[in-house]
Amino acid sequence: MSSHAIPLKEATIRNRQGLWLFFLTEVFLFGSFFVLRFSLWGDTRPELEQTAGLIATFVLLVSSLAMNRAEVAIAHGDKTKFRNNILVTFVLGAIFLGMILVYEWGALLGLHGEVLGIPVGHILPGDGVYGSVLYLMTGAHALHVLGGLVFIAITLFKGMRGDLTVKDHFFAEACALYWHFVDLVWVFFYPALYLIGHVVDIH
Amino acid sequence: MSAHAHDGPRKGMILHGGTKLSDYFIFNTDHKVIGIQYFITSVFFFMIGGALAMLIRAELLTPNSDLGNYLGDGYEYNSLFTMHGSVMIFLWVIPILAAFANYLLPIQVGADDMAFPKLNATSYWTYFLGSVVMMAAFFVGRPAEQPLLWNIAVALVAIGTIMMLFGTFRVVGWMQMVGISLLSMGVFILWGPTAAAGNITILLTVLTVLMFVIGGRFGTERTSAYVLGCSLLILALCNLLGGASLGIPGAAAGGWTAYPPLSASQTANAPDGQTLWIIAVYILGMASQLGAINMIVTVARMRAPGLTMGRLPLFVWTVLAQSILVIGGTPVLGGTGLALLFERLYGMTFFTPADGGSALTYQHLFWFYSHPAVYIMVLPAMGLISEIFPILSKKPVFGYKAIAGSSMGITFFGFLVWGHHMFTSGMSPWLLMSFMLGSMAIGVPTGIKIFNWIATLWGGKITINSPMLFALGFLAMFVIGGVSGIMLAAVPFDLHVHDTYFVVAHFHYVLFGGTVFGVYGATYFWFPKVTGRMYNEPLGIIHWVLNFVGFNLAFLPMHWLGMMGMARRIGVYPEEFQYVNQLSSFGAFLLGIAAVPWLINLVWSAYRGKEAVGNPWGGLSLEWQTSSPPPIENFPEVPTVTHGPYDYGKGIKPPIVEELPAFQPIPAPAAD
Amino acid sequence: MSEEQHETVTPDAETLAARLQEKLTQGIYVFLGLAALTLLEAGLVGSSTIVMMLVGIAKAALIINYFMHISSVWSEDDH
Fold it and tell me: Would you say residue B665 has pLDDT above 50?
């Protein structure tokens, strides 16, 4: 119940600090999954589709670049560039989500064979520790991507309505930071799931 | 209520700056209201947790299983101690400290509110929701056996829905709140292995949408409706998970640590309540995290001019340390809980060794949170008595920097020593050694605090009253708990007494003898500040005597039981332990009775106590520089700080009692 | 509060556009670095965990520093 208004600059700093502390809690949350992966898989990993993994990683990386461009644009008052770039971010984020669902959750969703020339996922959550950790990590990350997509949609809407200005665009900044954070998590999840250790037959 | 303040003595409860009683029942962003909400709710759960403890001690009066004869299948005792621990930790100790932090911290740093007031209120209601989910575990799946309970549940749902809808349409906040509580209780009682779960989920989802739509239409109660909508959504989610329930009624029974494979197994010893328990712990953890973020930003950005970090009251330092622990520890518990939940519900494998999982990993992750949690539960209580000692002995606190720094030291070491809970679980001897040394090292910052407190008292003008007695009790009891902690940190000794009553005695000396004594003292100490009335001193001293005697009678014998080899968590024990157990039980009953004068004191004094002045103890920190209770924005104008919080005897004249007006009437805020 | 005064002067359109271009170019360079590191990582498949984590930390440092401009938390300046 503040009786006096907080200056915009001060409010931004507080929001920024709160947001970073939130990221810190998320780091520990994802960290616990990371620990589970190394404790349960050790020096092994299940066979995952390498092409799909690399493409998905790049899709997310490019979306992060687009998000950076969108944020920089709105911070400097370029609304057109903001709109174009944030749309690209949204589409790429959706593609990433779709790729995870098809190429890693494929078996759970009842898919078979190949989609666009790449074999769909063949692991189920019940497949011992390999299936469990895979679904836990990708699921937690995908949920954050989904939340990010909603966040991006709202940011786009607000930006187009004119709520975000050169002086006051913390909403866009928060959205960008969140999206980069989602990318940051994937930076560590990608090698943990796809690259580290030697492949074992999970069945 | 406040308008005719100067016309003579005021009658009834004094509510701070223009608030109404109904403000305390709804989504309110004032940090003082939230603090009181936290206080009342957690005291309620303290009573429930205490009642469970009484039942446990009643069962242990005799070596046989008595409770099983009355209640049924014999698993009740497991539920009792599990729920006693969970309620006391998650619904009482952590939130009661949040209550003090919420009320005092912004005033002590000279701010008008927390950094994120809405987040703060969300944090409280998240806690409220989590507590409903946890308590619901007692009723889950019961109706199938008991038609009466079934009818009660249906009635609860009906009345709750009507009240909630009426409250929403007519914009009566408290009615909404009561409605949602009844509704959720009813839903949880009904929720079981029935096809109804699906229908209830649909109903809840429709209600959620309704709440959002209605909440959007009425501006004033908008946020409240949103929160209720979100609560319903989470309830619906819980229900959806319930669709995969095991069909075993009963509350969680795997101990508060919920070790797999027991808690992950689908047997009668891990009933549906265990699922709810995990969900509840996750929700409660979220509430803590939101609170911690708020506290840190408040301290970082909202200190009054002149209030440097070196002039912060020690309570603020401990809350800061606690918040760091929450941010680093609680999410790990959340992630581990999620894995355990999926293992229970969806046949995934993380922790069950038979399927290739690792039970040891659960223990590591769990204690990575739960050891810091011990400090989460005790640090702010240390801060509370760090306030009481210097002010009531009228001396500068001895070693301010050492006490503040040792809080941070405890935080740092707290993250490194979780392994001492797992000495018997199996780990490499080198790790055993390092965990042992690390755990003993924690005794150093803790000892620094203890000696500094004693040095603060040394030669001071000590006022012996209820808060001081409880603070002294904290000191004595915490030393006993701390010393037995050092004993337990030694691997050879721990191997001998692991999972015996010695451990139970140790953590009750730390958590009850430490935290709860501190909290008792703090309720008396800040009672005049919060309520604007003085507590009843004789009643407070009766409370202290009963409490002190009962506490030691209950828990001191447990050391002997542990040394003799009585395992914890058993309802049936060899006959030779009976006499000591009876001694302990009578002490526990006395301890239970001891809470009665406290409650009477709180309620009676809030209505009828002598009116208090702004600074009854002559304190120098900021919360004593405003009226009792404080106005809505805490200080009429932003205060400037020119000295430390405990600079007694340095020529600073605290605003003496008479110089402050007893109460500054604040004009009621305009509507909306 | 000199910073406040500094804030009140709205930069003209040209300065803004120039600054924007500068930041966009920087973003591209950072992206190229990240892409290179990702390819390196994929090429190192099966190698030791520590090497992988070092590459991951390098990527994380780039993202945190340039994309999430962590310094804005304590510098109190606009990025």
Answer: no
Q: Please indicate, yes or no, if residue C42 is contained in any of the structural domains.
A: yes
Write down the domain spans for chain A: 8-197
Phi/psi of residue A181, nearest 5 degrees: -65, -40
The confidence band for A155, taking pLDDT boundaries of 50, 70 and 90, is very high
C33 — contact with chain A (CB < 8 Å)?
Answer: no
Distances (CA, A) of B100 to B263, B381, B410: 34, 9, 21
Q: How far apart are CA B655 and CA B664, in angstroms?
A: 15
Q: How far apart are CA B227 and CA B257, in angstroms?
A: 30
Residues A138 and A104: beta-carbon distance below 8 Å: yes
**Cβ neighbours of A132 in B, within 8 Å:** 339, 342-343, 348-350, 357
Domain annotation covers residue C64 = yes
| Closest chain A residue to the Cα of B338, Cα to Cα | A136
Band (pLDDT 50/70/90 cuts) for residue B62 is confident
Give the neighbours of chain A: at least 3 Cβ pairs within 8 Å.
Answer: B, C
Nearest to A167 by CA among B142, B202, B509, C8: C8
Residue B594's closest CA among B512, B527, B532, B510?
B512
* Subunit contact B293:A18, Cβ cutoff 8 A: yes
> In sequence order, which ranges of B526-638 are alpha helices (DSSP H)?
527-531, 537-564, 578-608
Write down the CATH number for the domain with range A8-197: 1.20.120.80
Q: Are B318 and B386 in contact (CB under 8 A)?
A: yes
| Range A51-86 burial, b when 16+ CB lie within 10 A, else e | ebbbbbbbbbbbbbbbbbbbbbbbbbbbeebbbebb
Q: Is A109 exposed, middle or buried (0-12, 13-18, 19+ CB in 10 A)?
A: exposed
Residue C8 forms part of a structural domain: no
pLDDT (0 to 100) of residue B67? 72
Split into its structural domains, chain C has a count of 1
Distance CA A124, CA B399 (A): 59
Is the model's pLDDT at C74 over the cut of 60?
A: yes
User: CB under 8 Å to B285, separation ≥6 — which residues?
Assistant: B330, B331, B333, B334, B337
Q: What is the DSSP letter of B425?
A: T
At C77, phi and psi to the nearest 5? -95, 160
Local structure of B30: helix, strand or coil? coil
